[in-house]
Amino acid sequence: MSIDLAPVLDELNERSRERGSDVQGALMTLVVFFEDAAIGELARDRIHTLASKHPARVIVLDGTLGPDVARMEAGDWIELGAKDCSADTLRSAIAALRLPEAPLVLLWIAPGIGDDPRFATLSAAVQTVVYNSSLVDSGHEALCELVEYVEHHPRLPLADIAYLRLAPWQESIAIFFDGKDVQELFDLCRVEIACGSEPEGFYLLGWLASRLQWKPCSEHSLLTRRGNEIEFEIRREGEPRRISCVALSSAHSKFVAEVDKKAETIQLSVTGSSKHPRRYRAISNPGIAALLERAILWGQNDRVFADSLSAAGEILACGRR
Amino acid sequence: MPDDKLATATRSTGDGAAVNPLREGLVSDRITNPCSAVFFGASGDLFKRMLLPAVYAMRLNGTLPTDFALVGFARTAYDNDGFRAYCRKQLELFMPEGQKPQGELWDDFARRISYVTADFNDTRHFTALKDRLAENDEQLGTAGNHLFYLATPPPVFPEIIKHLKRSGLEKSDTGWTRVVVEKPFGTDLESARVLQSAIEAVFPENEIYRIDHYLGKEPVQDILALRFANTIFEPIWNRNYVQNVQITSAESLGVELRGAYYDHAGALRDMIQNHVINLLALVAMEAPISSAADDIRDEKYKVLAAITPSAHAAVFSMSARGQYGPGTIDGHGVKGYREEPDVAPDSNTETFAAVKFYIENWRWAGVPFYLRSGKRLSRKVSEIAVTFKPIPHRFYGESTDRIEPDVLVIKIEPDEGISLRFEAKIPGPKEHVRSVYMDFNYGTGFGVQSPPAYERLIGDVMLGDQTLFTRWDAVERAWEIVTPILEVWQNTKDFSFPNYAAGSQGPESAHALFPDWRHL
């Protein structure tokens, strides 16, 4: 199946002529791929927000429509039907339509990346790949696929929205262990995470495990470098793609970070020997457009993310054995 | 000690605290210490408009330590609850929509606010402050870290410093002590030295944070990134390629309600001596050996040390001054300076200052740096324009074409960004050229809002990062540079005042100093 790009190229040329010598800046060419109409609608809405802040050429590869769809929309926005198109067809279409000097960003929102030659071809051609594992699958299959793909493609310039969403939780948990309380980190014996989708929960646990050098030893436990066992539980609870509570227990203290009813703040409480007055931290939920923005600006090549993903993969693999 | 505890304990921050391994890679990867922040002058305008909103915004975006306390210290009588209500009211007024105080976050923030009604000359009130800080350390976990922010009128600074010492607040047994001094740092060289003597008798330099909020603005910080994170600019950033550098800080506002202060200050003291000279230092400095605060500040100082202050006799050929008269701005008639509240009707104070400096070093010898700042000019604009030398041999364009020099403009306000003007051939058979512009705008370039300057700077104080604060040697040198001009201007009444209309480009004398100012 091929895509007839002529109407789009003609329109681009026409617009270029109309623009004359006015200089137009653009930060990137953003390629968006999806195969689910509902996800596509959501994605389009968020990309509009993003593109209104970052001048970009947007190329939507809509996997629900056939390749007879190829048109320019208002703004620098191109819609292409991508159903049944081969990897090479898509690659050549993007090569023809991308802005020549601006970086190429791929936002891929579809399952099955491990077996999909289109993902392999497109992701190899771009500067940044943005994935959203918990939007693709609220269980952990999409995350497992991602882990496996990254194992075989370690140089993939990847960012996962599900991981970026954790930032306020990472900050909140770190607060527990600043200053003298840092030693409590090494006495932890239990981790409980309540979340509406599993990728966020495994990412958070993977982040803790990679920072503290814990290794999985069974379906529900990890081992510290000293050989102490840490039980963990990831509970499906609350809004999809959101964490609602993280509780960390040591022999003498319990550290609980919990979202309030309005989902505006994370309440931090510590009971036991490290008891501390209750503290609060704003969640300042940035929304998907802002997360995309972070992914594009800062998300890729983040070593802490790579370590967290790898650790999450080890934990998931241990659970499957 | 177990292995992993040992590993952690042996990695520590500069102040000896163990590193939290969870911090690596986070937005707040440097530990923000718990602390009490004391705001002297907490009933004043600066606190309510700038400082309090900055601190609350830090709370909202998570950059404020969760173990934090805010103590107001001022003459106006409040009890704790009264001051909390005052703070809430100001935040309602000055925080943007969506960030107004509400919910548990505000309740927690409010619980951490307290107030000491005080006479700055009375040690007993500083003793009460000491007790309050001890309570905060005990009850709010502020760990003996104390930030003293002097947001009072400058004449009160020495009194506050003296009483901090007398009451034993100049150091903390368990944490750090840092003092933030608002500008202006002195009103002339002599008074700056007196103030410095008073402060350095109590606090060492590494605990003094002389704040100039201009330096907290993102585009100002980007000057160094532009120069030293790129290879294409630095090779041409010198006398071989640069014709001149213009630094402008223009406002369309008048003195508003600051007439009493401004009439004793003027544009040279209020803007050139601090903001504008700081910009000059950033534009002209050599590359520091690292991003450490003192490496950067060393290089900035060297620039100022290479500027020879004018001889008194040369002041009029190296500077221009002006004072605005009545005029029109944005279609509205506005008063002249001498008609403003609290301004003397025969005032000799300049509301516009322009100066020419030369930096006498290998890089900049012979390149004029033109600095100007003024009120009630045609529009608000802050920018640095680097004009490059003309082409050495012309073969493009027709003889009537004007080939403009290339100009790189670092825009600070109101549109933050960078613009490059260069020549391009007009399409067609003829060899005409004209100027075109490439524009980078922070707003669209990154889509992220630059944090307000005070937010960034208060955070830096809490983190102990002095990079964006002015060191005493630079403050003193800046005063030395402007002192001859101040003295001549003070001792010579300008009978042409008012010499520019509000809403205009400034006085004619500025154009006599330099005819090629960029249009405002």
Characterise the protein shown here:
The complex is a heterodimer of chains A (321) and B (520). Chain A is an alpha/beta fold and 321 residues long. Chain A has two domains: 6-126, no CATH class; 167-284 and 301-320, Dihydrodipicolinate Reductase, domain 2 (2-Layer Sandwich), CATH 3.30.360. Helix content of chain A is 39%, strand content 28%. Chain A contains eleven helices and 15 strands. In chain A, helix 6 crosses helix 11 (303-320). The longest helix of chain A has 18 residues, at 303-320. The model of chain A has no long low-confidence stretch (mean pLDDT 88). Chain B is globular and about 80 Å long. In chain B, the strands form four sheets. In chain B, strands 8-12-13-7-14-15-16-17 form an eight-stranded mixed beta sheet. Chain B folds into two domains: 32-182, 3-Layer(aba) Sandwich (Rossmann fold); 215-391 and 471-513, Dihydrodipicolinate Reductase, domain 2 (2-Layer Sandwich), CATH 3.30.360.10. Chain B has helices spanning 3-10, 45-61, 80-94, 103-111, 123-139, 157-166, 189-200, 218-228, 259-262, 267-284, 293-305, 315-318, 442-446, 453-463, 472-491, 508-513, and strands spanning 35-40, 68-74, 113-117, 146-150, 177-182, 208-211, 242-250, 319-322, 324-325, 327-329, 332-334, 352-358, 368-374, 381-388, 407-413, 417-425, 433-441, 500-501. By secondary structure, chain B is α/β, with parallel strands linked by helices. Chain B has 16 helices and 18 strands. Classes of the chains: A alpha/beta (321), B alpha/beta (520). The interface between A and B is large, with 50 and 48 residues.
